[in-house]
Amino acid sequence: MQIVQQLLFILLATVAIYLFARNVGRIRRNILLGRNEPESDRKDQPSTRWKNVLLLAFGQKKMFKRPVPALLHFFVYAGFVLINIEVLEILIDGVTKGGPYHTFEHFLGSFYGWVIGFFEILAVLTLIAVIIFLIRRNILKVPRLNMNELDGWPRRDANTILYIEIALMTMLLLMNSAEGALHLHSGEAGGFLISQLIAPALSGLSDPSLHTLQVLCWWGHIIGIFAFLNYLPYSKHFHILLAFPNAYFTRLEPQGAMRNMQDVQNEVLYMMQPELAPPPPAEGETTPAPPRFGARDVQDLGWKNLLDAYSCTECGRCTSVCPANQTGKKLSPRRIMMATRDRLEEVGRLINAKQEWKEGGKTLLHDYITVEELRACTTCNACVEACPVGIEPLDIISQLRRNLVMEESNAPGEWNAMFSNIENNMAPWKFSPDDRDKWMEEMNAAG
Amino acid sequence: MQIKTLAEFAAEGSMPDILFWVGCAGSFDARAQRITKAFAQILNHVGVSYGILGKEEMCNGDPARRAGNEFLFQMMAYNNIQVLNGYGVKKMVTTCPHCFNIFKNEYPALGGHYEVIHHTVFLQNLINEGKLVLKGGGSFQGKKITYHDSCYLGRGNGIYEAPREVLAALDVELVEMKSCRSKGMCCGAGGAQMFKEEEAGKTRVNWKRTQEAIDTGAKVIAANCPFCTTMLIDGVKKAEKEEEIVVMDIAEMIAQSLQETSLNNTGQ
Ligand code: SF4
Ligand code: SF4
């Protein structure tokens, strides 16, 4: 019997891990559809980058700008990280024994009780936090968690994850409590820190049913974990993995700096100083395809933009501080990230199905993100500053705007006037360049 | 003291220590010219060795770049760098956070390397070094004043304290708005919004931001950017508070207090 359970467990684990690895591989491929970033390989200054991983991802520094959700989130996060140690034990138990066995107890001795007791406390804190999260989302209806852009899948996704957490934590506690009740029956002290409180309530059950309950919860817990693992790649909860690399690769330059366009810089340079231009291609050589100006679709964005899209937690901190959104404009930086991910997934599905995704089909610009949204951005960086995982919605907005203006000549009339003023009068307004130092003449005349 | 252009300095075979980059708003916009003049007065008062580019100054391309017109930006940058490097400019001060940001963060990649200082930081340095002495805040002393963080000085470049310290030197009672420092709300002008109508919405960004300022009960809204100043003035007008509340650049406040205290001194 035990060997059957062991084999079953190994099969289950293998399938779960294989499917997960395949999905992660696809996401990695999708992210690498993005352009390389010649301006910055995002690998310079490794020590600063590791510091960001520690502060932003492990330390959740930016989360603590809003202390209440930060603390609750911290419980769930600590629960997630530490309970993984317990999952490791379950894996070892499962492979070696096909059921609950407490492998680590043999290494840790009496300390084991403390460790499991600590996990139980975390499980309870996680349960409390998750229930408060559900209340905030569905009863208190915290505004940033209840915008229309979350209708449908995003809202279901957020709640599903919370329910999975409740189920996992409940099974963990119930499993230990059932075991505790068994111990009570044989006259020993029953259970660990929290489960000993629940165990007496279960002691009315017979030994065989308690045993069944324990084993069922054990299997339920690990099956739940495997299911969770395979749900992640489809969910905003993928951030629990990508928050770490995303913090590492986050920008280190001041937020005010906009990325340079080397191609355009060179073009202007060759126009001004033709002697610097590279010689035209010799007979028979093909000229390289002209670069795309700005971004029209996901593969025109940088890979970090695409990593950003997969790392987004859909928390809406960005949107809640966006001045455009606060004043009722259509723009929402969170929606920019969600739309980018949706489009990237779409492209990924086409690639999976071995189809070409061609020019003339849908594009991120227009089909997923509208001109009206892009136009409303003041480039204020509030979204970038607010994001707890180091995402830059503004960078995507800027690149899409570049494509609109440079490839489609799609700009409001006022902007076109501003452009021509700059070009002809060296100022965004229609003033005569001769008047530029009029203020100085006035001051000098006044003495 | 007569203000001179770098061309005039060059003709005399000399160069000033620092270039005052005035910017388009500061050069042409009637309201922003007052900020420019106030700052120039302070520089004259302290005796800083500075010059301007005058007619040789050109838009640095910020609104074009933010709107998406990289080509136009690169042309402006190329021409400006020719002029600046031609004069061998090493150091510049500017009264506009957009000019500050673009020279400090974006021109280096194009070959324009300068030490760039925003005027609020410049003022703070002058005060700390004892070169600019404020004899009390003049009429600002003890007055309720709120400070608006511009996006490009604040979040864009992490400068939150220098302007506040300058205000502290004026002995004002600083009251913060609901959103300030890294959470400060935009005035609505950045990203080339200054040059177009807003998209449809419930209200305007500058009206909402100005309301936050009005809610503090401050009598002066202190700013560090000519564009913010314009937007906030419009917000004050919209709220029909022009009689009670003024919007001033920090340089204007310093210049005014210098004038008042020197008048007092001569009166004594
Ligand atoms: S940078 Fe643009 S999208 Fe981001 S908060 Fe500001 S206005 Fe909104
Ligand atoms: S971009 Fe950042 S702040 Fe905005 S929803 Fe995603 S995770 Fe939250």
Write structural notes for this entry.
The complex is a heterodimer of chains A (447) and B (268). Chain A is mainly α and 447 residues long. Chain A has two domains: 2-31 and 66-248, Fumarate Reductase Cytochrome B subunit; 292-425, Orthogonal Bundle (Fumarate Reductase Iron-sulfur Protein, Chain B, domain 2), CATH 1.10.1060. In chain A, 64% of the residues lie in helices and 0% in strands. Chain A has 20 helices and no strands. In chain A, α1 crosses α14 and α2 runs antiparallel to α9. Chain B is α/β, with parallel strands linked by helices. Chain B contains eleven helices and eight strands. Chain B has a four-stranded parallel β-sheet with strand order 2-1-3-4. The model of chain B has no long low-confidence stretch (mean pLDDT 95). The chains are: A mainly alpha (447), B alpha/beta (268). The structure holds iron/sulfur cluster (2 copies). One iron/sulfur cluster (SF4) binds at residues 312-318, 333-334, 337, 386-387, 389, 391, 393 of chain A.
What order do the helices and strands come in, and which of them pair?
The complex is a heterodimer of chains A (447) and B (268).
Chain A: H1 2-31, H2 46-58, H3 67-97, H4 105-108, H5 111-138, H6 153-185, H7 195-202, H8 207-231, H9 239-249, H10 262-272, H11 303-311, H12 317-321, H13 323-326, H14 333-352, H15 364-368, H16 371-375, H17 382-386, H18 393-408, H19 413-425, H20 438-446
Chain B: H1 6-11, E1 18-21, H2 24-28, H3 30-46, E2 50-51, H4 62-67, H5 70-86, E3 91-94, H6 97-106, E4 115-118, H7 119-128, E5 144-147, H8 161-169, E6 173-174, H9 205-215, E7 220-223, H10 226-238, E8 246-249, H11 250-267
Parallel strand pairs in B: 1-2, 1-3, 3-4, 5-6, 5-7, 7-8
Bound molecules: iron/sulfur cluster (2 copies).
